[in-house]
Amino acid sequence: MSDLPSIAIVDANNFYVSCERIFDPRLEGKPVVVLSNNDGCVIARSQEAKTLGIDMASPWHSIAAEATARGVIARSSNYELYGDLSARTVELLGRYTSSQEVYSIDESFIRLTGTPQQVTAAAREIRVATKKLIGLPVSIGIAPSKTLAKLANRGSKTAPALLGVCNLAAYAPAQLTSILQSVEVGQVWGIGGRTAKKLIGLGIYTAAELRDADAARVRRRFGVVQERVVQELRGNDCLPLEEMHADRDQIQFSRSFATPISTVSELKEVLSVYTQRASARLRQQNSLARLMRCYASTSPFQDEHVTHAVSLAFPDPTDDPVEMYRAAITALGPQLQSDRQYVRVGVSLHEFSSRDTHAALDIFDTNPAPFAAGNVLDSITAKYGQETLGLGLAGFKSNRAWTMRRNMVSPRATTHWDELATVFAQ
DNA sequence: TCTGGGGTCCTAGGACCC
DNA sequence: TCTGGGGTCCTAGGACCC
User: Fold this and answer.
1) Residue A204 in contact with residue A229, Cβ under 8 Å?
2) Which of A155, A192, A225, A407 could potentially form a cystine with A166 if both were Cys, beta carbons 3.0 to 4.6 Å apart?
3) Which residues touch strand B (CB under 7 A)?
4) In this structure, are strands A165-167 and A138-143 parallel, antiparallel, or unpaired?
5) In 3D, which of A245, A264, A331, A340 has the Cα closest to residue A292?
6) pLDDT of residue A306
7) Would residue A36 be called left, alpha or beta, if left means φ above 0 and alpha means ψ between -120 and 50 degrees?
8) Where are the domains of chain A?
């Protein structure tokens, strides 16, 4: 038994559903699902909903009638609420570790040090604290590598006797092997459906068989990513914790519409809003973008699915929403065909540089500094809300046909005074 | 009527250069 | 008959993740 640092993954159970339940306890014990933007697909399910056989990613429109008849309660996604509860969880975990990698909205890798018994005890404490102080149930998997920690995390959920904490250090090598033998290769973190299929073709069915495969052969066949998985399954830590959440390398803003669009004037409205949202995220991380991509697509579920995509480089890296909007509409506008029904538009920004670095190098710039519309927008929307102010059409509050459908959304109970939860005494 | 959104990393292949 | 070879940069697309 070692005294080495362990990697723990702390993962909130059915995160979005658990968030909804914190502020609406009537949902406790009931089958609940949370829907994607536009109330499209199921993206989170309570245990009760899973037991009823509701699949992940089922289109809600095709199962709504039967599901509701069987008592399933649906909620539109409320990312403002989930994001806030996620941030609180990250802060809480920070009290238990010096290194944390925030891996997704509902998962963090943290480093824990001590004997296996001490590490397991710390994990149990974390579990109690997140439930008591935030209201979220979490499961924790612990191992020498991230991939094994993810595997342990699955175990912590499937074996009730573990009480939500699974530390692989507690098992002897033979036990560990039999655990890995019980895991299908496609369930391993980093092995997706395509690769799993090919591995099975080679006679590798389980995590144990992948661990014991010839690493060099796996690399030749599948690449370095999969070779790392093999190493990680052997307990060799190849994926370091990335503590500082680095700035993004790309930023995208895309949405499907409740009602399709087909005219350039509607496209202008959409691009006006999307370039402002994307550039706001860019300014938030103090970056400038050199490249922008924009696309408009018809429905992939109809015949003749088309996507018009344009890729354009700015003469100078920019974070200016006006410049982005003009470039986007100039490039994408002419591609639009009026007889088509576009259901989705996206804007993405790439090739970032730091705003500070760029300003320092920009000594030969002969253009006068443009009106800093972006910064003004940011400071006002930060204070008064996203919908307060926008350039052009984004400034109007009126409901446009193409905005998202969100018919079953819960209050933003932790971030808006007028949406606080109400407590009734019995 | 109705099918999400936002990321990362890696690789293949084209363009270009000497 | 016979059409270099190697390097870099760039981009699109694949695969995966939550």
Assistant:
1) no
2) A155
3) A 36-38, 40-41, 43, 57, 59, 61, 223-225, 248-256, 260, 281, 299, 301, 343-344, 346, 404
4) parallel
5) A331
6) 85
7) beta
8) 84-131+138-233, 251-395
Quick one: CATH architecture of A251-395?
2-Layer Sandwich (3.30)
CA A392, chain centre distance (Å) = 30
> Which residue type is seen at A6?
S
What does pLDDT average to in each consecutive run of 10 residues of chain A (426 residues)?
Answer: 79 97 96 94 96 94 95 95 96 94 95 96 98 97 97 94 96 97 96 94 96 93 93 94 83 90 91 92 91 90 84 89 92 89 92 76 50 68 62 58 83 90 81
> In this structure, are residues A108 and A102 in contact, taking their beta carbons and an 8 Å threshold?
yes
**Any idea which nucleotide's C1' is nearest the CA of A291?**
C11
A212 CA vs B17 C1’ separation (Å):
45
Rounded Cα distance, A348 and A252, in Å = 4
Tell the burial category of A270 from Cβ atoms under 10 Å away from its Cβ (0-12, 13-18, 19+): buried
Helix axes A79-94, A116-129, angle to 10 degrees: 140
Question: How far apart are the C-alpha atoms of A366 and A362, rounded to whole Å?
Answer: 9
Tell me which CATH code domain A84-131+138-233 carries: 3.30.70
A9, with CB counted inside 10 A (0-12, 13-18, 19+), is buried
